[in-house]
Design goal:
With about 325 residues, the chain is of the alpha/beta class. The chain folds into 2 domains: about 5-200, 3-Layer(aba) Sandwich (Rossmann fold), CATH 3.40.50.620; about 205-330, 3-Layer(aba) Sandwich (Rossmann fold). It has helices at about 20-35, 50-60, 80-95, 105-115, 205, 210, 225-240, 245-250, 280-285, 315-330; strands spanning about 5-10, 40-45, 65-70, 95-100, 120-125, 125-130, 135-140, 145-150, 160, 180, 215-220, 240-245, 270-275, 295-300, 310-315. The strands form 3 sheets. It has a 7-stranded parallel β-sheet with strand order 5-9-4-1-2-3-10, sandwiched between helices. It has a 5-stranded parallel β-sheet with strand order 12-11-13-14-15. β7 (about 135-140) and β8 (about 145-150) form a beta hairpin. The termini are far apart. The mean pLDDT is about 90. The protein binds flavin-adenine dinucleotide. Flavin-adenine dinucleotide (FAD) binds near residues 261, 262, 264, 299 and 318. Flavin-adenine dinucleotide binds next to α8, α9, β14 and α10.
């Protein structure tokens, strides 16, 4: 019988549980079914106690048990305190699998925990499964995104960090009678050698419309410059969309890195993704495969972007987009 799957429930600076937790919860339930209904558990650090929306989030996303660490000091994330407490918890409950979102916090926390436990960590995964031997099969891009590697871990817990937005969230689909277990914290557990002097909000944190955009109009190198992107801005505004870019366009300075999509940019899951003059390199498409419908406009019929698109338009983008803008404006 499996000891189950543990998930890290990250609380954001704004005080809500990060959406990547609900995405992990959804996948974890699927993995748990393949492990004969193993329990899915979560670990939470909270200064607010068990807020009603936290509670609802856990029960509605199918979590069997939540280990809660509650203290006012948890207003501020601390690598040292959090990892020490989690390491002790993992030693106590011995989960088979431990999953953490590949957010800034998760990327900081996971390697420290895995090295303290002497176990392996597959970082920045884009898919998870259980193989025929009941082991976690964690998939991530490798060799600069040219290949996908599925990695198995010989030791337990089998740890992985998972990119936000690669799985659908679990809201309201898996109601459970969740058990909440409050863990005792001793004053000596807070022995942090780092003092936070000031928190400066990064531009990426402020401008993250791409994360929640339902329509994305993305431009590539073929947009030829900032003016091409201005055209995309105008089009996007008319259809209620947000502009994104390929790395080809970002590297040439046509668009800022904060809107880059792909392996070294953002992973997006809009309802509609319109790729304009983007060739469709794997490092780009790895960030858009969760889109519901992909449309591409490219003047090269052999461009690989057509292979991942639901609708393809072989045409000059500088003819198609102005025409669409004209039609939208006249309506
Ligand atoms: C480690 C690593 C990480 C990477 N990470 C990323 C990443 O996160 N995101 C990413 O995007 N890339 C990434 N890349 C780069 C990636 O390999 C490609 O080089 C990049 O995606 C190409 O950008 P592009 O499609 O805009 O340019 P190109 O490949 O040059 O394609 C331009 C396309 O525009 C078309 N075109 C030109 N003019 C017109 C026109 N007038 N009308 C219609 N179509 C036209 C052309 O036919 C062509 O298909 C990464 C690469 C590496 C090695």
């Amino acid at each position: 019988m499996s000891n189950g799957i543990l998930l890290y429930a990250e609380v954001t600076r704004q005080g809500y549980i990060h959406t990547v937790f609900f995405e992990l919860a959804n996948k974890a339930r699927e993995l748990a079914d393949k492990l004969d209904g193993a329990p899915v558990m979560a670990v939470l650090f909270t200064k607010h106690g068990m807020m009603p929306d936290y509670k609802e989030g856990f029960t509605n996303s199918g979590i069997d048990k939540v280990f809660v660490f509650e203290d006012e000091k948890f207003e501020q994330y601390s690598t040292e305190t959090y990892s020490n407490l989690i390491v002790d918890l993992v030693k106590e409950i011995e989960p088979d699998i431990f999953l953490i979102g590949a957010t800034n916090q998760g990327r900081d926390l996971a390697p420290r925990i895995s090295s303290a436990l002497g176990t392996g960590l597959t970082a920045d995964c884009i898919d998870l499964d259980i193989n025929e031997k009941g082991l976690l099969a964690a998939t991530r891009p490798t060799f600069g995104g040219q290949l996908m590697a599925t990695i198995l871990c010989k030791t337990k817990p089998q740890m992985a960090t998972v990119r936000p937005k690669v799985f659908k969230p679990a809201y309201d689909i898996n109601y459970k009678n969740t058990d909440f277990v409050y863990k005792l914290i001793k004053p000596e557990d807070f022995k942090d050698r780092v003092e936070l002097v000031e928190f400066i909000q990064g531009i990426e944190d402020i401008k993250n419309e791409l994360d929640s955009a339902e329509i994305i109009v993305a431009g590539g190198k073929g947009m030829k410059g900032e003016e091409g992107f201005n055209l995309l801005e105008e089009f996007a505004e008319l259809i209620g969309g947000t502009v994104g870019a390929s790395r080809g366009a970002v590297d040439l300075g046509y668009a800022p890195h904060s809107i880059q999509i792909g392996q070294t940019g953002k992973t997006v899951t809009p309802k509609l993704y319109i790729a304009c003059a983007i060739s469709g390199a794997i490092q780009h498409t790895v960030g858009i495969t969760g889109s519901e419908h992909i449309v591409c406009i490219n003047n090269d019929p052999n461009a690989p972007i057509f292979d991942v698109s639901d609708t393809g338009i072989v045409a000059d983008v500088f003819e198609v987009i102005p025409k669409l803008i004209e039609i939208l404006k006249s309506n």
